Amino acid sequence: MAEVFVKISQQSEEELFINAEMVRSGMAYHYDRYSGSCLGKSQIEDAENEARLRSIGVWNGEHQKPWDYRRKTN
Questions:
Q1: Long-range contact list for 47-53, CB < 8 A, 24+ apart?
Q2: How many domains does the chain have?
Q3: By the number of CB atoms within 10 A of the CB, which of 5, 8, 57, 69 ranks highest?
Q4: pLDDT tens-digit readout, 26-54
């Protein structure tokens, strides 16, 4: 698990928080179990709420969360 930040441009110190952007776009879930010490936990939570409201990506239907899948296959 990691927090990933990318500079918006070489001329700027502003960074994009990739974790939150992936969750916001519906391409990832917020895995609360591992985000306790995450600096951007509230950003990720807000991003997931936004994705849920917009019903995009993993929130557009009945999709199985990875940790549920792993639990069933073990």
A1: 47/20, 47/21, 47/23, 48/23, 48/24, 50/24, 51/23, 51/24, 51/25, 51/26
A2: 1
A3: 57
A4: 999 988 877 777 778 899 999 999 999 99
Our CA dihedral for 7, 10, 12, 14, rounded to 10 degrees, sits at 0
Instruction: Let me know: does 7 contact 15? Beta carbons within 8 Å.
Output: yes
| Structural domain harbouring 15 | 5-73
Q: Which residue has the tokens 């918006």?
A: 8
Amino acid at 5: F
